[in-house]
Each structure stands twice: as structure tokens, then as C-alpha cells.
Amino acid sequence: MKINLKQILLVFILPIITTTIISCSTDDGPSPLSNDTTPPGTVENLTVENLPGKARLTYNLPEDENLLYVIARYTLENGTKMEEKASYYSNNMVLEGFKGESEIEVTVRAVNKSEVESEPVTVTVAPEKAPIFDVFESLEANPDFGGLKVSAQNPTEESIAVLIMQRNDVGDWEPLPTSIYTKTSEISQSLRGFDTITQEFAIAVRDRWLNVTDTLFTEITPLYEQLMPKSSYRAVSLSNDAVTINNAYPVTNLWDNEFLEYWGSYFTARNLNLDSHLVTFDIGQKTKLSRLHIWAFSEPIGGQRLYYYLGAMKKFRIWGSNDPNNPDLDSWTLMGEYEVNKPSGLPYGQENNDDLLAARDGADYEIDINKPAVRYLRIESLENWAGGEFMAISEIHVYGNPDFVE
């Protein structure tokens, strides 16, 4: 089986590389800080601490009032030439990018303010295997609704890519645009949009220095899911549900195909003294749920739509039941708890194009496949973007498989 390593290594390069990669110099660079042509002394008592994919060098600096920094040069296992610098305020540096479990020669030099280098001191490092290999060992791929779910452990929170590959038209393995790029410690992500036929996938893990693990080959048969017909949805009123503003925005607005206008959205009253705001509805039949796709109401402010504003939910829960008569949440099953992230991180009331793109088409909130099949749903708003509990939702689509029940 042929894997196109060039595509794996070059097409999906992560954007941030913290260690300096050597580049060609030009005559237009900055001038030295002084005119001292005497080389500084060498670093001394150089010691090595080998770490996963890294090596820490500790040393004594030469006594030279013109000393500016210490530079280490080395070549990664994949042939990439690297440099790492540390100022004269520090007596150590961390070298990164190693695949690990091999010996690499490093040259270390002191550099003065005239950019004159000392004689080299050579040391051998032997880093432990890079963190991507532990991620790969924990990697799992399982069938999910409309695709597959990829899970792995990344305890050191390294910036990694989990490359999901399928064969292209000429039979080579090619990474999909939906490959996973993350630095979270717990990786659990569904990839959807696949036909419900058995398919081959190849999965590898790569770091930002283009080190790549072995490949996991697997066959996955995605599970069937459908948009539950909104014509079957019905409002349910329980005693602890929140009321709407002036009772003017009914629960049925949640599935009326209005995605922007306030008259087609659902709002709970802002002046209710509740720990959380709840809304309840019936999706028509008992269903193994895969996800809810929710569109937050976007406030028209100053000629633009703000999606992370006022009653748009920031933290919320989804509850399910097949016996909705008891309003006590202890009698309901928690289907999932969610927190909405604002891509830009801008202060409240400020949003950019990244925020718009992330929010305007709504977002999926996945239901764990191990949760029971249910017919009745409750949305519980815990916190909105204004810091309260009232909610403002434009539309909800419920996906699942009514035939996939226990």
C-alpha cells in the first residue's frame, strides 16, 4: 500500500514553528551592535538532559562583557537544519524537533555583540521518542454517525496533526482536508459526510517539525443518520421551563426555518430568577441521537450581526428522556454538556470575520454514541455571552437514527 509521504509532509504543514530553521542570509540584515572582532570564550561544563523529542542544554557562560547570546546548531533526523539561540541572561536552552531515539551531534558557540562566534563545543544528544508516538499508541478509530470518530491521548498538549487519509484516484493515500489539527490533551473528534458503506482509512500523527509516526490502517462502516423531520417536532411545557419574552416567541420558532429574524427565533425572559433556563420539545419518535445543529440568534448591532452576544448560549446542556412528565432533571439523562468558543477571543461586543464564519451556519453539538435513544429533549442554558442565563436561539436541527435503538 503506497502512502504519498510528500503530501503528508508538505501539504499539511502546521503554521507555527517556534524553533528557528536556518535560512539564507542577505547583506541587508541588521548591523552588529559593536565592532569587537575578538571571539568570545567557549561555553563550559556543558550538560545534556534528554527529553521526549527535545534536549535541554545547560552550561557556564564565558566571562565576556561583550557576550550577546549562545547558539546551538544541529540537524534533525529528517535532514532539517536547525538553530536555537539563548541570550546571555540564561545558562540553558531547549532544542526541539527530534524524532527521538537516535544520537544527534550539536555544536554550541558563544556569540558577541559583533556577531563574532567562539570556537565550537560539540555535544551529543539522544532525545527520547517524540510525543507523537505516544499519541499514536493511544489512537482509536471507530464508526460514528455519518463517518468515524478518532480518539487519542495527547497529555503533553503538543501541537499535532492527526492525518486522516483515503486513497485518491490513482490509488495513493492522500490526507483529507478534514484531518485533525489540535493541541488538546484529550482528542475526540468526529469526521462526517461519508457514505454508509465500508471504507478504508489510514491514520498517522505528525508534529510541526514534520516527524511522522507509523500508519494505522482500518476499515470503517459509517452509521446512518438523518435529519429528524421537523414536521414531527412538538413543544412540551414543563413546570420548570422558562417563559418567553411576553410569551411572544413560541418554542415552535426553534424549527420554523427562520435563521436570522427575531420573529422566527426563541427567547426566554431576561428577568426570571432561575439558576438555568430550560426549554423542552418532542422530536416525534424515539431516536438514537448523533448531534444537534444549533444556530444562535445573532443580534443586529451597528449594521452587523453579533453571534456571541446577549442571550446566545455560551454554556449549556442537552437532556433526553422517554417519559417527559417529570420536570425534575434527575429523572432525565444528560446527553451532553457544551461550551461555545469564540474563535477570535475578542472582548464581549467585538467580533471579526473568523467569528462570523464559525457561527453563521450554526454548529454541531455531538451526542455520545453510548447515550440511550430518546424522544424528548431539553436545552438548559447555563450561561449566555452577557453573563446571564436567558437564551436566544434561532433554529435547531436534530440528527440521529430512529431505527438504531436498543
Notes on the structure:
This protein is mainly beta and about 400 residues long. It has 3 domains: about 5-10 and about 130-220, Immunoglobulin-like; about 30-125, Immunoglobulin-like (Sandwich), CATH 2.60.40.10; about 225-400, Jelly Rolls, CATH 2.60.120.260. The chain has 3 helices and 27 strands. The strands form 6 sheets. Strands 17, 18, 19, 20, 23, 24, 25, 26 and 27 form a 9-stranded antiparallel beta sheet that branches. A hairpin with a 5-residue loop joins strand 4 (about 65-75) and strand 5. It is elongated, with a radius of gyration of 28 Å.
Rg result: 28 Å
The CATH class of the largest domain is identified as Mainly Beta
Helix-strand makeup class? mainly beta
Number of domains: 3
Pfam family, one: DUF5000
Protein name: DUF4959 domain-containing protein
InterPro entries: DUF4959 (IPR032527), DUF5000 (IPR032164), DUF5126 (IPR033431), FN3_dom (IPR003961), FN3_sf (IPR036116), Galactose-bd-like_sf (IPR008979), Ig-like_fold (IPR013783)
Domain Fibronectin type-III: 39-128
Q: What secondary-structure arrangement, pairings included, does this model have?
A:
Elements lengths: L4 H6 L9 E2 L22 E8 L2 E7 L6 E9 L5 E7 L4 E5 L7 E9 L8 E5 L5 H7 L2 E5 L2 E7 L6 E8 L5 E3 L4 E3 L3 E7 L6 E9 L8 E5 L5 E2 L6 E3 L29 E2 L9 E20 L2 E3 L2 E3 L6 E9 L11 E7 L13 H7 L3 E4 L7 E11 L7 E10 L5
Antiparallel strand pairs: 1-5, 2-3, 3-6, 4-5, 4-7, 7-8, 9-10, 10-14, 11-12, 11-13, 11-15, 15-16, 17-27, 18-20, 19-27, 20-25, 20-26, 20-27, 21-22, 23-24, 23-26
